[in-house]
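Hi there,

I know you've been waiting on this one. I reran it after we fixed the sequence typo, so this is the corrected version. Both the input and the resulting structure follow.
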Amino acid sequence: MSVAVVTDSTPYLPPHLVERWGVKQVALYVGWDADLRPEPEYDDLDVFYARLKESPSLPVTSQPSVGDFLAVYEPLAEAGHDIVSVHIAEGLSGTCESGREAGRVMEANHGTRVQVVDGATGAGGLGLLVIAAARAAEGGEDVDAVVRAIHDTRERLDIWFCLDTLEYLRRGGRIGAAQALVGSALQIKPILTFGTEISPVGRVRTRKRAFERMVAYLGELRDRGATDWCVQHAQQADEAAQLVERGTELLGSEPLFCTEVGPVLGTHLGSGLLVGGVAGA
């Protein structure tokens, strides 16, 4: 491939897809008490989420440095690749800006073309954009065409998630338009969408109703001709497996991936379920 695809650690793609598509990743950081670590170093998510639940303070999350990006970009440039780098929404993280600064260094020092794209989403939605970019790159498309593939997929992408509580979003300052739901009712299960900011699309009162609403949403994706879809969860593996089963029945295909959300987004979301899909062209 003449174009290499780079992303960050927040799509939470399974290792076999990262390897299959040759995607390179730049890690965000997370930790307590100034002990910031690259996100992939947290290999036991049960331990992380247990501490998150018990700790009086939230972990700190941080974007990758310019140097982190250069460490990924430079070997790709040396191998003769141009680079398309697609990342978590700029409204939620400064990751894109670090990538752009590294891209300017690469173009000045190596003449390599680097295009950084704001995915305007995160988690599994970002993962679907990464796969769209990788498919285009594997097909021999140039930088501009790979970027167009990302934008086209983003226009047809929807992602919903339901949370056990809004408390983590509120405490972490990432609540955005979902602030409107705070204090509106006790024990609600908010249903939100993941774009340039986190916005509400509904609410229910029980976990069971939240699950059924996510199933109904998969039915809506089917009706819109969706082919690519995904499921993610944070500490809800059983419900995620059930959602995969129901979704496979509805859409007639298995999800591209079903994974657990890691520490960076888990810090701000807490526990919950996520589904996303790309509508037909």
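Quick highlight: The mean pLDDT is 91.

Best,
R. S.
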